[in-house]
Amino acid sequence: MSTTMSAREQLNQAAAAVRESLDFPAEYMEPAYRHAVLLYNHGRYDEAAKVFALLAACDTGNPVLWKALGSVHKMTGNHDEAAAAYRLAVATGINDPWVPVHAAECLLHLRNFDDARSALKDAELAAAGAGSDAVILKNRIGALMKSVDANASAV
Question: Residues 133, 63, 24, CA angle at the centre, nearest 5°?
């Protein structure tokens, strides 16, 4: 048996250490998440960002928290932080095809056309399983790809 921890195990251990150092029990995670969603829904984005960031630090492997953090940063125009959070959502295993679309939107704002194009290609792959949302998703991907191509060629 190997004593080497996987990256996921290391992240989980680090998250547990963060929770312990903050004296933030795991059973507080869900109520805090619901509170952050309420803050977000009421347009209190800066406050929601603080809660989502804390929760993401306490549960680094939870893609929903990274998506939420990305969303709140996107709403406040912090496109670089939003793109980073969306990247972490994808890296931790989220199956939501809208996440790379939102990341591409942020990357387009940042004029990072290569990474935006790459995110859109990832979204195209994920769109196959989008169900009833597939048409809207594919249309959005197509429009963003045209925007990336037009802006990239203008540089």
Answer: 140
User: Amino acid identity of 149?
Assistant: D
In this prediction the pTM is 0.86
Measured CA distances, 120 to 1, 13, 19, 83 (Å): 41, 33, 35, 13
Q: What structural domains and CATH numbers belong to the chain?
A: 1-82 (1.25.40), 95-155 (no CATH)
Round to whole Å and give the CA distance between 100 and 110: 15
Which DSSP category does 131 fall into? Answer: G
Per-residue pLDDT of the chain (155 residues; tens, 9 = 90+): 446 777 667 767 777 787 788 777 889 999 999 999 999 999 999 999 999 999 998 888 899 999 999 999 999 999 999 999 999 999 998 989 999 999 999 999 999 999 999 999 999 988 877 777 888 999 999 999 999 999 988 76
